[in-house]
Design goal:
single chain; about 600 residues; alpha/beta; Rossmann fold; Lambda Exonuclease, Chain A; seven-stranded parallel beta sheet; 20 helices; about 20% strand
Length: about 600
């Protein structure tokens, strides 16, 4: 790809990059098989897709993700061809031929949501944090439960460990079972407790790895993994944890040391990174530049180029340099800095920019056939006759700056994307999939009524029942409300940084900071010899009261909803002496209404 030479001939100079690229390091790119057997009708040149983000309703990351997803969809629709070395000929591109390379990984989850909205499969290449995984948290609490039994500490903490395991996919208990065990003090009759008790009897002779193996075997972790998604990923996590335990016991760590280590990692937020194996499946790959090293893909998109380089070290008052040593500020009517700091900063910037230029080179050489860069419109067109000068290069603060400095030289490869034609939508945030084109055919569908002889014995619900078939528009509205409901269900109200309008309204209406928060609280309750099954959307428990909030699509005036909330009231008052208040929240109207308690 001669385009790479065109770029680095201009920006990689001896003072920034450490080499004279044009004279000594320019390479001949491409494989002659592309010319001899490949599809010469295709344009394999660099493409620069520019856009103007003027209204700021969407972030650059959102716009770039929509541009890339739309482009991939178009290429798939047009049967875009790539060369297959195994087949020795061209073939139609599949999703696994596309790769998206970002400067850093913070937007990868957003990309995945947007691609799911487009019905495009995507696989993220990044290291995962072991301490954030549910199975590791379960093992941590199982070890705590075992140690509590070993030390005969039957206190509140021990009951907490029991409940956390019981509610997990390992214990698989419902809330009613757990509540009965705690209320009747019969948790020692459960399999969870019995297995922990048996392990506690042998703990004196166990090393950390032996304890882990015993826990994994006794609680049948591998059997339960089928309940939580990727069995392969879960096995990799356990294998990594076992290797970690084995390494620690070689250093003399005991079981107590190991649980202290795990607990400190989890509570402090420290990361234990591990690599997940990747599937060779048909999906678009997304990764950062460092992860892309050693990999190649027929078509590579480069996005997130506007992100600023991390230069936080330059802000520190104390610095170290191999030439100037330790640099400290001085005091003279205020804090002052030595002139040597400017020398160190200049040297640091030279090395940092040189490293970024080399990193950008690594990124671009991942493309076997085509590079596509997606970035904001250049503010002005800059032309370089031979190569960038040193002072201009020292102003680089992003990969975008590299390209902006030679924008006129690359103008033939650039085109402007009209983002108003992308149909960008926030629906991706709620898991709503983009509509697939309707099927148009001559075949007529026929419907037959099937008569079934049946009779109802007895049925009672806490929630309102619908007895008619929904119209198409009603079904769409209901589906939208369901997506918002799911979003609220998954929201961490205490730690959310950028709440949407629905979450913000709830945060402004209720005090979440001083409440214990229960979401999707399921219960089974018997009243007047009738059994009711319900799920409380949101419950906030304070020191002296409890507030129950139920989410509704729009109408919150229906008497059925009031009766429903009163069933929730009856259940909660049966297990708590606190004052209970009831509320309905209209999703469509973004409105909260307090509901009266009946028969009190």
């Amino acid at each position: 790809m001669q385009n790479i030479n065109e770029i680095f001939n201009l920006i990689m100079i001896p003072d920034l990059g450490g080499v004279d690229y044009g004279d000594h390091h320019a390479m001949v790119y491409g494989n002659h098989l592309y010319d001899e057997a490949g599809n010469n009708s295709l344009n394999h040149s660099l493409e620069i897709l520019k856009y103007n983000n003027t209204d700021k309703n969407y972030t650059n990351a959102e716009i770039e993700a929509f541009i890339i997803a739309s482009d991939i969809k178009e290429k798939m629709k047009c049967h875009y061809l790539v060369y297959d070395f195994d087949l020795g000929k061209n073939r139609e591109a599949c999703y696994s031929d596309f790769c998206i390379i970002l400067d850093r990984g913070k937007e990868m989850s957003r990309y995945k949501k947007i691609f799911e909205y487009f019905n495009i499969p995507m696989e993220i290449y990044k290291d995962s944090n072991l301490v954030e995984q549910e199975d590791i948290l379960i093992i941590r609490n199982l070890i705590r439960l075992i140690l509590a039994i070993y030390h005969h500490e039957y206190d509140t903490n021990m009951r907490y460990y029991f409940v956390s395991v019981a509610r997990s996919y390992i214990g698989n208990m419902n809330d009613e079972e757990i509540f009965k065990h705690l209320e009747n003090n019969t948790f020692y009759e459960s399999d969870i407790y019995k297995k922990a008790l048996e392990i506690s009897k042998k703990i004196d002779s166990m090393t950390p790895s032996l304890l882990l193996e015993e826990i994994i075997s006794s609680y049948e972790f591998y059997k339960h993994f089928i309940l939580v998604g990727s069995v392969r990923d879960a096995i990799i996590r356990l294998d990594y944890l076992l290797d970690l335990a084995s390494s620690m016991e070689v250093l003399g760590f005991t079981v107590l040391d190991f649980i202290d280590y795990l607990n400190n990692m989890i509570t402090s937020g420290t990361e234990i990174r591990y690599k997940e194996a990747k599937n060779a499946n048909n999906s678009v790959k997304i990764m950062n530049i460092h992860k892309s090293k050693g990999l190649e893909f027929p078509i590579c998109y480069f996005a997130g180029l506007k992100e600023k380089f991390n230069l936080g070290d330059l802000q520190s008052r104390f610095m170290f340099d191999s030439t100037y040593g330790i640099l400290t500020p001085f005091w003279e009517n205020g804090i002052g800095t030595l002139f040597t700091k400017e020398l160190i900063k200049n040297k640091y910037m030279e090395e940092e920019i040189a490293e970024k230029i080399r990193l950008f080179y690594v990124a671009l050489t991942r493309a076997k056939e085509k590079m596509i860069m997606v970035l904001p419109e250049f503010k002005k067109m800059n032309r370089v006759k031979s190569r960038i000068d040193y002072l201009s290069g020292m102003k680089y603060r992003s990969f975008y700056d590299f390209l902006a400095s030679i924008s006129f030289n690359l103008k033939d490869y650039a085109q402007t994307i009209d983002i108003t034609r992308l149909n960008i939508s926030k629906d991706y945030e709620f898991g709503i999939r983009k509509k697939v084109e309707k099927y148009h055919g001559d075949e007529v569908m026929s419907f037959k009524n099937l008569e079934v002889d049946y009779h109802v014995l007895e049925e009672r619900h806490a929630s309102k029942e619908v007895h008619s078939i929904l119209k198409v528009d009603d079904a769409k509205t209901l589906d939208y409300g369901t997506k918002i409901h799911e979003m609220l269900e998954e929201t961490d109200f205490k730690h959310i940084k950028e709440p949407n309008s629905y979450v913000k309204h709830l945060l402004d209406t209720f005090d979440f900071e001083h409440a214990s928060i229960y979401q999707e609280l399921e219960f089974v309750f018997t009243k007047d010899h009738q059994e009711y099954h319900g799920i409380i959307d949101l419950m906030l428990e304070y020191e002296d009261e409890i507030k129950i909030i139920d989410y509704k699509l729009k109408n919150i005036e229906d008497e059925a909803y009031i009766r429903q909330l009163n069933v929730y009231y009856d259940y909660i008052t049966s297990v708590s002496d606190k004052k209970v208040s009831l509320y309905l929240y209209s999703i469509m109207d973004n409105k909260v209404k307090e509901v009266e308690v009946l028969n009190v």
